[in-house]
Each structure stands twice: as structure tokens, then as C-alpha cells.
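Students often ask what a holo structure prediction actually looks like on paper. The answer is less mysterious than it sounds. You provide the chain, you provide the ligand, and the output is a string of C-alpha cells encoding the 3D arrangement of the protein together with FE2/S2 (inorganic) cluster.
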Amino acid sequence: MSSQVHGAQKFDNAKRSETVFSEDAMKTVQTIISRYPADKIKSALLPVLHVAQAEFGGWLSPETMDYVASVLKIKPIEVFEVASFYSMYNLKPMGKCVLEVCQTSSCWLNGAEDIVKYIEKKLNIKVGETTKDGMFSLKVAECLGSCGTAPMLQCGASYHENLTYEKVDSLLENYKAEGKLKSYTDLDYKNTL
Ligand code: FES
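The corresponding C-alpha cells follow.
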């Protein structure tokens, strides 16, 4: 499987002036919440954080986490504990496209280190940094479950597998031309959250 492009992005990713979900996002949040018993609403936190991250510019600011806490009627610290634990949540502003290169065994054995170096050189950034134009951030990740098609990277909901330098060139060009924030919610929400 090569580059996968999933369904249309659901939410307005433009920077919003106030921390309130759009109507579409709130509907999705309510659907997610409705899947859990009323006294287990906290269980909705992970998928709701995905919606929040997609909705508010690709990262979770303290204001956004406080807002999510108010929506789920839980304590802000409970949101922070979860958001700071999982690598898919960003606690600082990121590029529109966050490139997560798997560095675990299968990918490492198949050249992940060289792929990381190649991207670093091409984008003139190091792991953990964002390009000056705000388009790309580079991260390394632990096994993303696609070991048979190593080396691979994830960007939002898309996997890019059996990577070569040429494939990296092509995906970077495509993302740049598209110029959109890529999020985990690019997947069809009904099937994934
Ligand atoms: S080792 Fe890279 S996806 Fe599993």
C-alpha cells in the first residue's frame, strides 16, 4: 500500500478567534459522547481531543484543553494528563503537515534513519522542528503497525510506505501544493473514532 488519501477533511482548520467548536465539530463530539454511558463520559476524551486538535489549528493549547474539559465536564488536569501522554497530541503549534517517521526495528533496519536525515536536509530542519513557512514539522515515532512495508511515515491519517527518497520528494511536493492542515480526522469519523 502506498500513499493513502482518505475521505474529505471534516472540519474548518482555520485559526479560530475563540475556542468554541464549530457546529459540525460539536455534532461529531456529541455523537462520540453518545456512545458512552452518562457516568463514563470521560471515555470520550481521546476522540474528542482529535476533533479539538483538528478544529483549533493542529495543536492543543491550554485554552483548548480547558474547553474540552468543560465540554466533557471533567477537570482540566485530566485533559492535560491524557494530552501530554500520547504522541499524537501536540502541545505546541506545529506545521500543517506533521511527518512522523517510524524509527522502530523493521523501519530502522530498512533505512528509517537515512529517511529522517534526508527529510532533515531537504526541509532544513531537525527532528522536533518546524519549517519557517509553517508547512512541515518532523517527528520520529515508535512502531506505527506497518512493519511489513517499512520504512514508513505517517502524516495525519495517511500512511506513506516502502519509502524511498523519490517517494519522499513526491509526498512533500504534494502536501506543499495542497497547503492544508492534515489531521487524524481526515479519516471518515464514523468509522474511526
Ligand atoms: S517498525 Fe515501523 S511500522 Fe512497525
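The chain has eight helices and four strands.
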